[in-house]
């Protein structure tokens, strides 16, 4: 049997219509909200558990990784951003439940799907809640808890390092932290790091009380800490002298003047404002250089301890994050903000110890050097600290820290 072209075209159209009809039948949603999620207000994790947690401070802290007082204060700040309009179609999720979903996600590191089932919320809803809440936390708190340091703040940081950590004229400990992520699509090797994982880097400057002074989030995993520091806003402003850092003061118990400095490891360049240890082959057999490296290491490890506290409190960082890099950036930044907020609220028992000191204001003079080539002034500053720590005044200063 032969068909005309007109008949063949009619048959093809009929087949296509049948296929489309079957597809629509199989993909058509049977309900707007799944019956499981409709029970959220009665049987969801928040509805069942929160009312019991608020009467038990220790259980509340174990669940949210923060005290009830801090959670309530946090809620009041972000509430305007988390409040949604009521429509005739559905009742919006309350700000307190949205904050609970986000903080629980950060505290446990559970997947969006796991959070979805436990709170009886849609997967896409949980995703939106976490990302929007993290952005709100950064928006509402960052300027208050990670402000741009003033001259008075730098002096206070230096006094804390002097009194609590035994390193004079130090205004921060610097290091980078890799957060493992799932390889982004079409990203090549830019996120692939020396540990053979894909990561985003947090570069942080930390004070003597484990608080973040400055952070840079979002660098590619393949970049070195020193390279990230040279390109980030913190490194550029320290280099050109626009970060309001006082020029320095005499070292304790002596007439030796030294600038205020940051301490870092071998990944960073030696600058007049950034001290790194002596290379191993130079320190071998030299007691003074070995002593300097030891004192610098004790001060520098504060930033590693801060990273440890961050990953212990927010266990999302203990596993690979399957999120887009721009969303990971905000999650990391929001946890840094929450970390400082909790420190400010003294939610780290025994870790916070504040002290103050007044001094004359001066600015750090900029120093122009070739990349990776320390200037003679930088060598001289390190020698000054080395000789002081090995002197009688330096030993007496260190001895006073142990007595205290």
Give the class from helix and strand content and strand pairing: alpha/beta
Q: How large, in whole angstroms, is the Cα Rg?
A: 28 Å
**Main pleated-sheet profile:** 5 strands, mixed
Tally of individual helices:
17
- Please write the string of helix (H) and strand (E) elements: HHHHHHHHHHEEEHHEEEEHHHHH
Beta-strand content estimate: 5-15%
Indicate the percent of residues in helices: 40-55%
Task: Give the number of DSSP strands.
Answer: 7
Task: Give the termini distance in whole angstroms.
Answer: 104 Å
Shape category? elongated
Low-pLDDT stretches: 349-372
Q: Summarize model confidence as the mean pLDDT.
A: 85
Order of strands across the biggest sheet?
3-2-1-6-7
Family: Belongs to the HARBI1 family.
GO molecular function: hydrolase activity; metal ion binding; nuclease activity
InterPro entries: HARBI1-like (IPR045249), HARBI1_dom (IPR027806)
Subcellular location: Nucleus
Descriptive account of the structure:
- Helices cover 53% and strands 9% of the residues.
- By secondary structure, it is of the alpha/beta class.
- Helix 7 crosses helix 9 (123-145).
- It is built from 17 helices and seven strands.
- It is elongated and about 90 Å long.
- This is DDE Tnp4 domain-containing protein.
- It comes from Parnassius mnemosyne.
- Pfam families: DDE_Tnp_4.
């Amino acid at each position: 049997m032969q068909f005309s072209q007109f008949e063949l075209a009619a048959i093809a159209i009929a087949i296509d219509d049948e296929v489309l009809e079957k597809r629509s039948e199989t993909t058509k949603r049977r309900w707007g909200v799944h019956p499981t999620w409709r029970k959220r207000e009665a049987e969801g994790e928040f509805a069942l558990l929160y009312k019991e947690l608020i009467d038990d401070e220790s259980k509340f802290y174990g669940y949210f990784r923060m005290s009830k007082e801090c959670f309530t204060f946090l809620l009041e700040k972000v509430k305007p951003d988390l409040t949604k309009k009521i429509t005739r179609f559905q009742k919006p999720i309350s700000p307190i439940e949205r904050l609970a979903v986000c903080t629980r996600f950060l505290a446990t590191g559970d997947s969006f799907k796991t959070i979805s089932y436990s709170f009886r919320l849609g997967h896409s809803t949980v995703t939106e809640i976490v990302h929007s809440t993290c952005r709100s936390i950064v928006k509402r708190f960052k300027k208050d808890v990670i402000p741009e340091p003033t001259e008075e703040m730098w002096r206070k940081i230096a006094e804390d390092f002097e009194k609590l950590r035994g390193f004079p004229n130090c205004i921060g400990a610097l290091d980078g932290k890799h957060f493992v992520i799932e390889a982004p699509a079409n990203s090549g090797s830019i996120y692939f790091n020396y540990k053979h994982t894909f990561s985003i880097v947090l570069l942080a400057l930390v004070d003597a009380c484990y608080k973040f002074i400055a952070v840079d989030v979002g660098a590619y995993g393949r970049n070195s800490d020193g390279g990230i520091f040279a390109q980030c806003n913190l490194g550029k402003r320290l280099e050109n002298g626009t970060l309001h850092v006082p020029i320095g003061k005499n070292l304790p118990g002596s007439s030796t003047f030294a600038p205020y400095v940051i301490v870092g490891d071998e990944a960073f360049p030696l600058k007049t404002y950034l001290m790194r240890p002596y290379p191993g082959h130079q320190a071998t057999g030299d007691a003074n250089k070995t002593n300097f490296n030891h004192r610098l290491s004790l001060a520098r490890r504060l930033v590693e301890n801060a990273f440890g506290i961050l990953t212990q409190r927010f266990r999302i960082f203990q596993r690979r994050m399957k999120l887009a890099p721009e969303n990971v950036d905000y999650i990391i930044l929001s946890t840094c903000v929450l970390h400082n907020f909790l420190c400010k609220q003294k939610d780290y028992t025994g870790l916070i110890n504040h002290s103050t000191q007044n001094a004359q204001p001066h600015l750090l003079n900029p120093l122009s050097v070739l990349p990776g080539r320390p200037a003679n002034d930088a060598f001289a500053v390190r020698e000054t600290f080395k000789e002081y720590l090995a002197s009688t005044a330096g030993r007496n200063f260190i001895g006073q820290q142990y007595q205290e």
